[in-house]
Amino acid sequence: MNPNKLKAKDLITLAIFSVVFIAVYMVCAIPTGLIVQLYPFCAGIAMIPCGIVWAYLRTKAPKPLAILIQGVLFAVIVFIMGSGWFVSVGVFAGGVLAEIIAGIGGYKSFKLTVISYAVFGLCFDLGGFLIILLAGDYYYENSIKLGADTTYMDTLMNFMGGPVLAIACVLTVIGAIIGMLLGRAFLKKHFERAGIV
Fold first, then answer.
1. Which of 1, 18, 44, 186 is deepest in the core (most CB within 10 A)?
2. Which is nearest to 40 in space by CA: 164, 173, 179?
3. pLDDT for residue 43 is more than 60
4. Phi and psi for 179 in degrees, rounded to 5?
5. 159: CB partners within 8 A, 6+ apart
6. Domain boundaries defined on the chain
7. Where does residue 157 rank: exposed (0-12), middle (13-18), buried (19+ CB within 10 A)?
């Protein structure tokens, strides 16, 4: 039996903790989303506590396709919850890239695991906000259709720009690094057992 192959218990763990990952993200995103000027930076803030969940999953299933499956689950759930298709595309792309990056180190390199998590967060960020710069009218109309307040959207469209997105991306990378370092600190025994160095 191939020890690197995902087993049923791995898939169950991925499913459960992918939901936990999203729940932790939402706990961070909802309050920051209430303030327009904080909304673009919610991913950077959420990457810190979510990093602990991400780190746990990497120690419980350091195997091929685990990250991709988590990315797909996340993309489907955020789409069902009402996020635009562009957010799901960003999450899916992040899952693919994170899988490739972590796979380069055989899922045993902490450094590559951190990079893969940061790339996942960046793709999530870009999926959510790059469309404002590329197709602002579409984003505005789609958000209004989904129930967004027009005053909120007007403020967001005026606030969001290239420099703000760049700052958001930098904060996402910083948040990812902090989150993974916290995860490794809290889950030291799990990391040692999984052989991630």
1. 44
2. 164
3. yes
4. -60, -45
5. 36, 37, 40
6. 40-194
7. middle
pTM of the model: 0.92
Task: Give 4's pLDDT tier (boundaries 50, 70, 90).
Answer: confident
Which amino acid is it at 196? Answer: I
Provide the residue type at 108 as one letter: K
Rounded alpha-carbon distances, angstroms, from residue 21 to 37, 128, 151, 154: 24, 18, 31, 30
pLDDT tens profile 100-128: 999 999 999 999 999 999 999 999 999 98
